[in-house]
Amino acid sequence: MNYKETALKGVFIIESNVFKDARGYFMEAWKDSEFKQNIGSVDFIQDNESKSSKNVLRGLHYQKGSYSQSKLVRVIKGRVLDVAVDLRKSSPTFGQHLMVELSEENKLQFFIPRGFAHGFLVLSDEAIFTYKVDNVYAPQAEAGIRWDDPELNIQWPIDPDEVITSEKDLRQPLFADADYFD
């Protein structure tokens, strides 16, 4: 696997070695020893999966305090535009975001450490999205930021009127009013 650190310290794009033949393909999606060597020790405890249709936007989500989570995300079916936003006040990239397309074709993975908000927009008719997390879901620690916050200036490639999102995500605070990480 090829691990490439991005402009946001601690955020990586991971490219797996994919072996294709007449039968299909084979790839290692995650290997603990390589991950530790390239990124560090992260104790993933759970795998999650979601299925969404075109124009669904999930996010921008994170958990606060001792319930914060690192995530290793990828797409099994379809195509999404995945976004990480740096919420670490002490970071030189605080408030900046990174956007990467994840798809069943490119098989890229995106590692997002603790201290970031995360969200994605489905670009294909349907997407199956999977991710590893290193902490339990805790409703009392749940937080988010509006996906269309003008201060973040995320250039989602969709007309805002076409976005399909949850009522909860529509009520998220703006970046200026969000809880940050120290």
Q: Which key features would you list for this structure?
A:
single chain, 182 residues, mainly beta, Jelly Rolls, 6-stranded antiparallel β-sheet, 5-stranded antiparallel β-sheet, 2 helices, 13 strands, 42% strand, globular
Verbal overview:
This protein has 182 residues and is mainly β. It has a single domain, classed as Jelly Rolls (Sandwich). The protein has helices spanning 32-38, 167-170, and strands at residues 2-5, 12-15, 18-21, 24-27, 46-53, 57-63, 71-77, 79-86, 97-103, 108-112, 116-122, 126-133, 142-144. Strands 1-2-10-7-12-5 form a six-stranded antiparallel sheet, with no helix packed on it. A five-stranded antiparallel sheet has the order 9-8-11-6-13, with no helix packed on it. A two-stranded antiparallel sheet has the order 3-4. The model has no long low-confidence stretch (mean pLDDT 96).
Total domain count = 1
What percent of residues are in strands?
35-45%
Indicate the mean pLDDT: 96
N→C terminal distance:
32 Å
Oligomeric state of the chains in view: single chain
**SSE ordering:** EEEEHEEEEEEEEEH
Given as residue ranges, the uncertain stretches (5+ residues, pLDDT < 50) are: none
Query: What kind of sheet is the major sheet?
Result: 6 strands, antiparallel
Shape: globular
Short description:
The protein contains two helices and 13 strands; from the N terminus they run E-E-E-E-H-E-E-E-E-E-E-E-E-E-H. The protein has 182 residues and is mainly β.
